[in-house]
Structures are given as C-alpha cells and as structure tokens.
Amino acid sequence: MMNKAIVLITLFLIGCNKNAVQENNPALIKSQTELTNNWDGTLVFNKADNPFLQKIPTNYSIHPNSARMIDLIKKSCGPTFSNVYVNANDYSIPVYLADNSSPKRSIKITLYNKPPNLESMINIPFPQGASAAGGTDKHMAIINIENKCLYEFWLFEDTKAGSGNGISINSNGIYADGRSTVAAGWSQLQGLIWPKELKQGLINHALSFSVSVTNANGFVFPASNNDGALSNNPDAIPEGTLIRIKPNVVINDIPGITETEKIIYKALQQYGMYCGDTNGGGLSIRAAHTKSFLKDAYSPAMQFDATYGNFSLKNFPFDLLEVVYTGALQTKTTKPYMNQGCAEWK
User: Is residue 217, in this structure, part of any structural domain at all?
Assistant: First the structure.
C-alpha cells in the first residue's frame, strides 16, 4: 500500500513539474502567441512561383482519369465514406518560432536525405519545450524568424531524426532534389490550415492532403519525389496531384456542412489541394498542430476526436470534386544533394 502511494505521489509531482515548465516557459508562450495571432499559410514560402499560392486558372484542364481517381479515393475512405478529416494533432506538424539567441542543437539524421559523408544537421535553434507530434511520423518544424530558415524533421526524437532538412521560408517551399520530410518533396508546412485563417474566414492558398491509394510509379508537378503505395494502377493518385471542388458549385449550398467546412471548401474550390504523402487509410487534410498555438486557438466548433486529433468532414463532397491535369507522370530518379541555403551539416 505504501509503495502504491509513493508511485501516485511521484506521478503527481512529475505532472505538476511538466505543467509548470509549460506555463513558465516564456520562449514557448511567445512562439505560441505569435503563431496564434499573426501566422498563416501565406507567410511561409511567399515566393511568387509557389504553386500553393496560385488560384486555379479559368482555362485549366481536367485529368482524363478524373472520375475514376476520385472514385478510388472515395472507396478508400470506408463503406460509408466517413474516413475523411482534418488532422491537427498526432499526424500533423508542430511549428515553433526561434531566433538567433535560442539554444542550439545538433540533430543526427539516421535514415534519409543526408548529404554524402555527413550525418548531422548542426546549429539548429531549439526553443525550450519544443516537441514532435505524438503519432508514429513524429514531425516537427522550427522557424528561425531572424534568418527566415525553416528546419524540419520526421521521426524526431530529442537529438536524432529519421530525416531532416532546411529551406528558406522566402522560397517556393519545394526541395529541388526531393529531399524533404514529405514524400512529394515539398516542405511539410506547405498547405497547412492555420487557426488565424479559420478565424478570419478565408484561406488564401492550396491545401495539402494524404491518401492511402497513391501511385508508386511516379509523381506529377509540383512534386519532386514520391513514395506511392499502388503499382500499375492508372487510377492511383500520383503525389503532386491537384484536386479541386468544381468551379460552378455554390459552396454555401452544399448540404450538411458547417461554417468551418465552408471556409475549407472555398479554398478547395479556388486553390485546390495537393497530394503530398501516403497514409494508412482515408483522406487526411493537414492543419498545423494544436500545440503550436495558445489553448483553444482553433474554433470550439472544430471538435477533434480523442484518438488522433481529427476533425471529421462528415459530408465531404466527393461527387463535386475533379482532378486538375498538371502534367505527365514523372519517374523518380536519384538526384545529387542540393543545399537549399539553410541546413548546416557535419
């Protein structure tokens, strides 16, 4: 009985200490406040040639396999087509702001994207309290607001990560050599939904999504890489694929959707959403991780489930979608490492 009491007291003290660290962490609170109030998807990768910032032109072409591709995605979302959601937790991206005065850390890259004969990214500004997402992907991103560099990681654990790289937020956000922490080769911050955008009722950029029925045989513009799941299936979704809601649809007339969904679907109509990755099932649209922001930064109307932190899109308009043709299927090739101007290695 005494041992059990000691364990309970110890766990209580650990919890208190953890909460105290979070509540008394000026760097983390400053980052969360700034990201909550001022940041959105137009502040990252604001170069004019970033395809995520381009509205779909009126003279766009529809992919010849559009209907079959949409049907394949729909069937992958379960028997009631209910496995469609916005993710802002376990399989999303925590974002943190740092500056030149932040403590520095070296991160050993253990699996992918390393330059030849080098293994660690060095001099990463690391705000106290920064941590990866809780899912198996363990994404994390840090922005140095002074030099405008983004450092991003996959499978992050303290001083190591499965892959990592750096890129300027004043670029177009696409790694020319494909060495990103997202399969499509662009930054993991491309296409995220931000709380500020939902609060203001307007998303001025394309979104990023993942599905399980990706094409293993190649990718399309603007992707520069791929990790597709299905081979030799002409209806599988190449990474880089752009999907939109048809331009003649009146979003406010879609039955059963919430005000939050209207904001998201208007962005899908004007800008579309790009396929960036393969997931374990369903259709997932990414939002910036909840722990990047102050508590309740997202609207209370966005009710995230307790399992993975998903906001269900219960009446997703599959029958109103079409695939935009952005170019022929490209074959994956090995390219030499190209430093994007931010990552330092040793």
Answer: yes
